[in-house]
Amino acid sequence: GGGGGGGGCLVHSHPLHGSTASHGNSITTTATVHAHGGVGASASVPTPQPPSSHPPSTRHSSNSSAASTASSATGSESVTSDQDQADKVSILSEADSGVVCCSNTSRPVSYAGTAQLQGLLQGAAAAAPPGAAFYLTCPLCRKLVFFDEGGVRNLPAYRTMESIVDRFCAREALRCQMCETDPKVASIVCEQCEIRYCDACRELCHPARGPLAKHNLVKPRNAASQRESVCGEHEDTLSMYCLVCKMPACPQCIAEKQHPGHEVQSISVTCKAQKTELSHNLQQLSEKARSTTEFIQRLKGMSDKVTESCMEFERLVTAQCEALIQAIHDRREYLLEAIRMDKDTKIRILKDQQSNCTGKLQQTTGLIQFCIEALKETDSAAFLQVGSMLINRVANTDMTWHQEVTNAAPRVSPIVDLTLDDAALVRAIDNLNFMQMKAVKDEEERLPAAPLAPTIVPEDCSAENNSVTVAWHAPAHSFVDGYVLELDDGSGGEFREVYCGKETICTVDGLHFNSMYNARVKAFNNAGEGEYSELIGLQTAEVAWFTFDPILSGGAGSGLVFSNNNATVSVEGWEHRVALGSVGFSRGIHYWEFTVDKYTMDTDPAFGVARIDVNRNKMLGKDEKSFAMYIDGQRSWFQHNSVHERRVEGGITTGSTIGVLLDLERHTLSFLVNEMPQGSVAFRDLYGVFYPAVSINRGVTLTLHTALVAPKMDYF
């Protein structure tokens, strides 16, 4: 595609289901196009990239267009134009931006755009010139461009690209491409072969006979060739520019009122203004490119510094590890020396004990020999003189021998009864890691940085009943003094701190049922607090599972007897005792039931809810901390703060079921007996935390059933 001629339109050419082949530095797109009659035609179309703003340009004369196209394809012809110096303000050197566009032997690469050619390329109309099989419609001005034997050369020339190519090609003189040594100045260019020849090489390599006779030989454009844009319709110089149509026009176009009422100004003024604007934009871009170049140099310098710093750090780590290894070696020598000293001590003790035993044995042996000789004495008076003394001495020796020798044991054990406690050291070695330091300037003291964010471990996190467990990993390369775990309120509200410590797992109890809690954790040290971890959501149970809590119910001295995994309760005394459930409720709808396993007619148990500080030695409902229904074999009453009211007929027996419905959405408490409502709503305006509760005395045994779906009540 190129700048539009005549009306100044711009026509794009795009590849169409074809293939591209590279010839030198040019790109040719081969597209197969079907005419209306169904006969396919193949067209080879060079596709240089048009500027995105569709600048208007004009068509050369046929010879000039062919020459310029040939020079663009070869990429090695040179042109010097006086226009190069016409407006120096629009010229920026390569040194301004630090960016080199291309070498002096390269050609700007063409660009194959989106495939829209099929919608533009159509079979030739009836008014087409002879030999024209297809035509293109300019999407801007809708002008038709027919394709005859000239092919793509019929398209408006891309003058800006031609000028750029010519200026780059002007760096070298046009030389013959066929001379083997010392190339001569070329005199002819073959448009078909795209090769330059001197006179001698033309006669030798490209004679004008045979198939070569049909080739079009033209003179190469020299550096002084001057091109001027002319109107494709009037062949007049384009000297004006329509600001509305955004295309150049000649005086005849203006005279014929092809641009009626449009604002028109001199094309040189418009060109000057656009060049000035482009120059200004290029200057800004050049500054950015220069700063980017400086930034790249900084990055390169930092890369060298990173390498140097890492090498220095490697030496430091190696030295530290060597110091640790040396410390372990020194400690090993100390421990081995302690073992040797222990060995010497034990051997010395054993030798002393052996020496003592040897001396004792020698004394005893001497006594035995003397006694044997004394027994040989035939003179009775002489024997009786020493007999009593020998008897006592032998007896004493035998007794002391039994104590000192027979029952004696080695004073030391031959087995080393020591072990090396290396578990802490092994853990320390396993945890030996880098610690993130604060980024500081040179010569400033380096301090540990605030820790990074911990990592939540989802597979170790869980929710059970109204409790959640959150686990996390310590942040890598961070020194940590402790962690702060935070939970929201279960409704997406503000977070609050629920744990602060060094552990990496925490269970939080006493949460709301049927609520989604979001948890997050952060680490801290002396440098400050780190970032929060990612959130994890944990859903508590929809319905509550709980039992009686012996501790909350008063402990071992309460007189209550719990069994069946704390689901069944009874009491031995006649005084009422209050048993509390293991969970408290402050939100939601909750329902639980009691089964009467044993009941005598001379007692009246009470069922309901209570606060944690209820009086546990009175009937439920006797103080302001409890709300209850007490019932006997015939009727029931509702009671709070020792005020009982609204008697309801219908009592209980062994096997009866009492249901308690705590609705903290409506803040009410209701009761059911044998799955039937026992009166209307018993209590209203209940706010705060309430625990399931029951008070019983001797003659009643109850079993608690939980995790039940609340029944639908048809009254409020």
Explain briefly what this protein structure is.
One of its GO terms (cellular component) is neuron projection. One of its GO terms (molecular function) is zinc ion binding. The protein is an alpha+beta fold.
Largest sheet: 8 strands, antiparallel
Judging by the overall fold, what is the CATH architecture of the domain at 548-705? Sandwich
Q: Mean of the pLDDT scores?
A: 78
Helix content: 25-40%
State the helix count: 9
Beta-strand content estimate: 15-25%
CATH superfamily of the domain at 548-705: SPRY domain
- CATH topology of the domain at 548-705, by name, is Jelly Rolls
The parts where pLDDT drops under 50 for at least 5 residues are 1-120
Gap from first CA to last CA:
82 Å
Structural class: alpha+beta
Radius of gyration: 54 Å
**Highest-level CATH class of the domain at 548-705:** Mainly Beta
3D shape: flat
Count of β-strands? 35
Domain B box-type: 171-220, 226-267
Keywords: Coiled coil, Metal-binding, Repeat, Zinc, Zinc-finger
Domain COS: 375-435
Domain B30.2/SPRY: 525-713
